[in-house]
Design brief:
Helices cover about 10% and strands about 65% of the residues. The protein is mainly β. About 20% of the residues are buried.
Length: about 270
């Protein structure tokens, strides 16, 4: 009897934690803005074959402020021996008082080849746009080498990576378009941890300087909390901060364009895993 009693207490506390997190999430209306966190998953390599998830988010307000924000993404992973293939699609759209204020898309494809349990090489392609960041298009192609500094099966992992990519960017600055093509260093660190069977966290940091001008750089920091609701459904809370040292700017435009260097976003979504 004592064992059953403790087990019931544990299950009850665990259920209460899930309910509390869900209520806290729904109590806030957070604006969604997508820059994909490629690493937003639990520790451990994917199993042989196909897997993936579909993710949906919705935030809204009514009354004095009418606001609607929608987000959707899909991720597919295929592993065949030492080769892993990854594809991601994302779309975000939002309005405030009937006026569009969020409109961005993201596509990413990646190939990973495992050299050992701790080393891997990878190549990737990416394309994105963001109307309200004056980004008409950004396409890139690159490769990395990745090293797992510490890992414990499916409990936690700490990895770092270094590589580079060729980037072509087109900014819509109202009175003209600004196009650039350059090489950037891609350096990153990723930490993932399963707190227990139901809760996991991860954090990712990217630093991407221009190889010919280190004053031109971008940084991305993303952290996420994953709460397992069922065997196939997760609740995800994500925070993201980005910094662009040379954001879009054209003071001659109407209205003037003078984007912020630092942007933050919060996202709440449901993730269906398959």
């Amino acid at each position: 009897m004592p064992d059953n009693h403790h087990r019931l207490n544990f299950l009850s506390n665990d259920l209460m934690l899930k309910i509390l997190l869900t209520l806290v999430t729904l109590a806030f209306s957070w604006n969604v803005h997508a820059i994909s966190n490629i690493e937003s998953s639990r520790p451990g390599l994917p199993e042989e074959g196909w897997s993936g998830h579909i993710e949906f988010g919705f935030d809204g307000q009514t009354g004095n402020k009418s606001e609607e924000d929608y987000s959707a993404s899909a991720k597919a992973v295929s592993r065949h021996g030492d080769n892993i293939y990854l594809g991601i699609l994302e779309r975000d759209y939002g309005t405030t008082r009937g006026i569009k204020d969020t409109d961005d898309s993201f596509i990413h494809a990646r190939w990973v080849h495992l050299l050992s349990t701790k080393w891997a090489v990878e190549g990737f392609l990416q394309w994105e746009d963001d109307v309200f960041d004056n980004l008409k298009s950004r396409g890139l192609i690159g490769s990395n080498i990745r090293h797992a500094i510490a890992q414990d099966a499916k409990v936690f992992s700490l990895s770092v990576g270094l590589g580079g990519f060729l980037e072509r960017e087109v900014l819509d600055l109202d009175t003209y378009e600004q196009e650039s093509k350059l090489w950037r260093i891609n350096s990153f660190a990723v930490y993932k941890h399963n707190i227990n069977d139901h809760i996991g966290i991860n954090a990712t940091f990217y630093y991407q300087p221009n190889t010919s001008d280190f004053t031109d750089y971008r940084t991305y920091m993303t952290s996420a909390l994953l709460v397992k609701l069922t065997d196939t459904l997760d609740l995800k809370l994500q925070y993201q901060m980005t910094r662009d040292s040379q954001p879009a700017k054209n003071l001659e435009a109407t209205p003037p364009i003078d984007n912020h260097e630092v942007n933050t976003s919060y996202q709440t979504s449901l993730v269906y895993r398959f």
